[in-house]
Amino acid sequence: MKVTRTGLPEVLIIEPKVFEDERGWFVESYNERAFQEALKALGLPAPRLVQDNRSCSKKGVLRGLHYQRAPHPQDKLVSVTSGAIFDVAVDIRKESPTFGKWVGVELSANNGRMLWVPAGFAHGFLSLQDNTQVHYKVSDFYAKDCEASLNWADQQIAIEWPALDVELILSEKDKAAPLLAEVSF
């Protein structure tokens, strides 16, 4: 597996090794030991991933920016099994030198990339194709009383979302999410 740091050093692009031949391909999409060793080699915490989540979205669906507050913050390993997304992580740790900064990466079934989004970062994505299926492995169980969100269009953050030829589709909750100045992690 190849691990690359992004402009936010704790957020990582992970590319598993793909074995291809005339029959097709095979990939070990997750290996806990290899994943934890890779994080530790970079001096990062290596939590166990305890829950898997999946979503399916139409082109133009924007989900996020979501996170869980203490005592149940979640680290996320995000991958795409069908379609493509523009995946975004925003640093919401007020004491961090990269507070309010964001990174965006295209993840697709074709490129096989994954994005590691540690706790302390809000996460969201824009679906670039119909029937886009996203898979998340997370480090803590969902806790409704800890769920929170950050406004996807906050001008202080100024995420450069890709332009699409369809109207964006957001949940009412995501449309009404607070601005960065109002969030607490």
From TrEMBL:
<dbReference type="InterPro" id="IPR000888">
    <property type="entry name" value="RmlC-like"/>
</dbReference>
<protein>
    <recommendedName>
        <fullName>dTDP-4-dehydrorhamnose 3,5-epimerase</fullName>
        <ecNumber>5.1.3.13</ecNumber>
    </recommendedName>
</protein>
<comment type="pathway">
    <text>Carbohydrate biosynthesis; dTDP-L-rhamnose biosynthesis.</text>
</comment>
<comment type="function">
    <text>Catalyzes the epimerization of the C3' and C5'positions of dTDP-6-deoxy-D-xylo-4-hexulose, forming dTDP-6-deoxy-L-lyxo-4-hexulose.</text>
</comment>
<dbReference type="Pfam" id="PF00908">
    <property type="entry name" value="dTDP_sugar_isom"/>
</dbReference>
<comment type="subunit">
    <text>Homodimer.</text>
</comment>
<keyword id="KW-0413">Isomerase</keyword>
<dbReference type="InterPro" id="IPR011051">
    <property type="entry name" value="RmlC_Cupin_sf"/>
</dbReference>
<comment type="similarity">
    <text>Belongs to the dTDP-4-dehydrorhamnose 3,5-epimerase family.</text>
</comment>
<dbReference type="GO" id="GO:0008830">
    <property type="term" value="F:dTDP-4-dehydrorhamnose 3,5-epimerase activity"/>
</dbReference>
<dbReference type="InterPro" id="IPR014710">
    <property type="entry name" value="RmlC-like_jellyroll"/>
</dbReference>
